[in-house]
Amino acid sequence: MTLLIDFSVIMVLIVGIWQFRMPSKARFGNLTAAFSLLCAFFLVLYRSGIIDGSVVMVSLAGGAIAGYAVARSVSMIQIPAMVAFQHGAGGVAAFLVSLVELTRGGHALDLMREVSGVSGLTIGALTFSGSMIASAKLANKIRQTPQTLPAHNLLMLVNIAAIVGVGTASVYAPADSLFYLYLAQIGLSAFFGILFSMRIGGADMPVLISFLNATAGLAASFCGLVIGNQLLIAFGATVAASGSILTHVMCTAMNRNIFKIILPEVKRAGKPLKKAAG
Amino acid sequence: MSNLILMAGVFLVSFVVGYVLICRVPSLLHTPLMSMTNAISAVTLLGALLLFSLPTTRLEKWLGSLAIISATFNVVGGFAITDRMLGLFRQKGPSE
Fold first, then answer.
1. A267: which DSSP letter?
2. Between A21, A56, A90, which is nearest B52 by CB?
């Protein structure tokens, strides 16, 4: 029975996305998707008794009012930066949920859930920091051109190795050091997000945003795995799929290779400029 | 264990369904679609709510409420922005 209800909520979401085939129906589709999310929200409220009702209500109201007010007040030019910022907010939520669930469960969780939790932590944190960089670039708060640190590739490799190392260590470490390991994991992943997105700039920004969209969905999905909620997994996976397709489509539209965007070759500064002048 | 397989199955099926759905969307609508899926990706709100279904310590309360705030910010803001974007579409459409 519960499965059937979950399934129908997901069906509503699918109908919503289905409307996006035609521009005239897209607005209705957006509302349909919002409605399905609302259904999922009330379903969770109904199924699991909330203990700290007041805290939850206040946070909900605060987030909703802030989100709506900001979304209404930004100008059309600021929208891309705002969308990127919202991705970041989603990332924060994902890694916080994973963190709390992991510290609560510790090694009592089965291995699969622990690994998903650590993945949720990692992906959520890198989505957060990457989106913040992207948002700042789009809002013209920092320079929009790709920035490269000395030995950027090496730094990224070391960072990835550290993330994998700490992640693996957290599965085997004694329970009392777990919380700090998780914090270290968040920090490392956030740093990776910065390294990753600061190198991308200019015309490649849409690709970056859509890539971060995919990672945000993936983080939500991992959150669902660690918490054990099918709705969360399904919604997250749908977003991850759509994000990765959009990334691919945008790359092909601009005649760019995704790997060239993510791993650009080190170019000597000034060279393209001289060519253009000559 | 069966629970685990079920979850993995849910993930796979949703991924495939998402793939099939998005392939049909015209490129004109890719930007609003991205903005909408951005809003959907904040379903972590459900996870944040579920955190409060068990007794919480003080730290967990803070972290959980921060998670709820940022997730609702993403959900509400995401859908509102998409709605605005699509509203713009409608006004522009006939005049062009």
1. P
2. A56
Question: What's the mean pLDDT in A37-55?
Answer: 84
Q: Give the type of residue at A162.
A: A
Q: Where are the domains of chain A?
A: 1-48, 80-266
Question: A191: which 2 tokens?
Answer: 């740093």
* ipTM score above 0.95: no
A-chain CB neighbours of B84 within 8 Å are 71-72, 79
Enclosing domain of residue B85: 28-95
Please check whether residue B63 is in contact with residue A99, taking contact to mean a CB–CB distance below 8 angstroms.
yes
CB-based burial label for A162 (10 Å; 0-12, 13-18, 19+): middle
pLDDT beyond 90 at A122: yes
Residue with tokens 């910010």: B73
Query: Minimal CA–CA distance to A218: which of A194, A242, A192, A187?
Result: A242
CB contact at 8 A, A160 and A228: no
**Residue at B9 is within a domain:** no
Q: Look over chain A and give the mean of its residue pLDDT values, rounded to a whole number.
A: 84
CB < 8 Å to B85, chain A: 79
- pLDDT for the residue numbered A277: 39
- Per-residue 3-state assignment (H helix, E strand, C coil) for A196-226: HHHCCCHHHHHHHHHHHHHHHHHHHHHHHHH
CA distances for A221 relative to A120, A159, A163, A231, B16, angstroms: 8, 24, 20, 9, 14
Within a domain: residue B19?
Answer: no
- B 31-70 residues with CB < 8 A to A: 32-56, 60-61, 63-70
